[in-house]
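Researcher: I'd like a structural prediction for the single chain below. Treat it as a standalone chain; there are no partners to consider.
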Amino acid sequence: MGCTLNMSVLWLVRLVTCRMQVKNPMTMTEKILANHSDNSLVVPGQNIWTRVDKLMTHDVCGPGTFGIFQKEFGENAQVWDNERVVLIPDHYIFTSDPRANRNVDILRDMAQKYNIKYFYDIKDRSNFKANPDYKGVCHVALAQEGHCKPGEVLFGTDSHTCNAGAFGQFATGVGNTDAGFILGTGKLLIKVPPTMRFVLDGEMPEYLLAKDLILQIIGEISVAGATYKAMEFVGSAVEGMNMDERMTICNMVVEAGGKNGVIAPDQATFDYVKARSDEPFQPVYSDGDAKYCADYK
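Model: Treating it as a single chain, here is the predicted structure.
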């Protein structure tokens, strides 16, 4: 099931996945983590070593992340994969504060030192348009530059890294220590989260936006209602959303304490990804009899 799936095959795969009896049914989040830890089955609460497809860090946490990497792995150590690390300055960019500017300078130094392929630099702070490599907010840039793909594992040193779950991948924020470890190994020890499912059927009225919908959900379950849980969004209302709207939904799950948000990939996902990347990917879907810790409709 690669990125060349057409719609008829895609829906057949999803239909079979939902209706067949699976010996060890899993949610999307569990399947992705199982695939990346060489386990045939993972369950909520299980500690696993997961392989990492992409690590993103920005100008707030990047200097600290590389500092920890150098301290723990040595000044002469190399990052585990210089094409899987994405550096995006987007917080301290248009300011005259020399300390803030220094953070971006450190990122630039690290990109050169470790030959990081994906560094979206900003050099001319006086003229926004004079920076062709600058891509804006890190979460949007990750998607627009083709770094988000179904079935993958993405960590980032920002709480809203969960934004990328809109592409049917496991994406979550980590601290500098974890990110430094990933830089050196390409792996991370995590606990498999239980999954909450939100079934959103029907047609969205014109006066409501995706942001309204997720804020309503957070209001209902509370800002701690999804603490260390995956939030999976399904239903016709979700399927009718474009990728920007889906990213809006997943971006906000951390505001409910969620570990990650996730939406099943479909043709809209594939079209978006294939327009931005030639890299292969492997979409996965929740089994029909997967176990959820909570169901909201």
